[in-house]
Please model this.
Amino acid sequence: MTEISSSIAQPGSHAQDTATKDTAPADAANVRRAALAGLIGTMLENFDFVIYGTASALIFSKLFFPTISPAAGIIASFGAYAIGFLARPLGGLFFAHYGEKYGRKWVLVTTLFLMGGATFAIGCLPTYETAGIWAPLLLVLCRFLQGFGAGAEQSGGATLLTETAPLGQRGRLSSLIMVGAAFGTALGAIAWIGAQQLPNEMLMSWGWRAIFWSSILVTIAAFVIRLKLAESPIFIELKKKVDVKNQAPLKVVAKHGKKNVVKVILMNWGVSTQSYIYQVFMITYLVSVVGVDTHFIPPVQLAAAIAASFAAFLTGMLSDHFGRRRMTLVLTGLLTVTPFLVFPGLNTGSPVLITAIIVFGYMVAAQGVTGVHMSFFPEIFGSRYRYAGVTLGREFSSIIGGGIAPLLSAALLAWYANSWVPVAIYMALTMLVSFLVTYSLPETLNRDLSTPTDAEWGEARPSESRA
Model:
C-alpha cells in the first residue's frame, strides 16, 4: 500500500466499508439533481464558447481588429479565442485546490457565476471604433475570465456524477455532461440563426450583443439547480477519514498521480484538437475557402449539436457494457483516419455532404469520445485527488489541444496556400497519440471509487456493468 493509500485508510475500517458503500443503492433524487446540474452547467459553458467561437469566425475580426487584413484579423480573433484555453489550466489549478478541500458542489456554483458574468460582459464591450486598442484588450480579459471559470466546470461535473452514479450506470449518467455541452452548442446555433435574420447593420451594432446577454438566463437557471445539489458521497466519506482542509491536494496529485495526469493530457489532446477544429475552424474554412454562405453555418451547427447529444449518451451507455478503454480505442482509431476524407468532402461544396461531415465531427470527435471520457477519467484516479487529477489533465490538454487548434489550423492554411493537407495531418497525428496512450491504460469499468490509489490492471468489474 502506498503512502497516499495508508494516509487515507483507517485500520480495520476502510476495507470493510468500501464494498458496502460502493455497491449501496444511490439516492435517486441526488442522482437526478447531479445529472441535471452537470448537464445545465456544461450547457452554459458550451453556449458561451460556441457563441464566442462563431463570433470570432464571422464578425469579431471586423469589430475588434479592423485595422489589419481580413486573414490577419481572423488569426487575431482566434488568438483571443485561444486565450480562454490558456486560462483554463490556471482556473483548473485554482478550483481543483478548493474542490478537494471544500467539495465538488462549492466549485460548481462558483465557476457558474464567473463564466456567465464574463460572457454577459462581452456583450457590453465597446468596439475598436469607439475605444481603440482598449476594445481588443477588454475582449481578451473577458475571454480570460470565461476560460478561468470553465477550467473546472466539466471536470467537476464529471467527477461528481461519476462518484454519485450507481454501478452499471456511471458511463451513461456521466455522459450527460457532454449531452449538456451539445445542448449548449444547439442553443448557440439557435441564437446565431435568430441574429442573422437581422439586417447586417443591426447585427453588427446590437444583434451580436444580445446573443452574449442571453447567457444570463442559463446562468440563473443553473444556479437555482446547483444550490439544491447534494455533495458527492465519495467526498463525504473521504472527509471522515482525512482532514482535507489542512492538506494540499495539488501536492498530493503531483506526488502520487502525475503519471496519469500526463496520460490524461495526451489522451485528450487529439480529441480536444479535432473537436474544436470541427466546431470553430471549419466554419472559417467553409466560408473563406469553400465559399459557403455564412447563413448556412448555424443551421448545420444546430443539426450537428442535436445529433451529438444523442451520440454522447449512446457512447457513454455503450461504455457501461463494453468498457471505457475499448470504446475510446474504437472512436479514436476511427478519428485517426477520417481527416483525410473530410476535407475533400467539404471541398465539393455539396450542402448535403458538408452537413454530413460536420454532423459526424460533432457526434464522434466533439461529443462521442468525451461522452466516454466523462466516466473514464474520474475512474482512473484515486479518491484523494480525483478532482484535481481530472481537472489538471483535461485543462492542460486544452492548451495543446482545443486552445490552439483553430489558430494553428488557420495559420497552416495561410502558410500552405489554402491546402487542407497539413491540417489533416495535424488532426491525424494528435489523435494517434490519444489512441496510443489510451491503449497503455487499464480498463476502469466499475472500479471501486473509494480506492485511494489510481487504477491498475484487473480492477475493472465488467460482471457488474449491467447492474
About this structure: Residues 22-464 form a domain with the Growth Hormone; Chain: A; fold (CATH 1.20.1250.20).
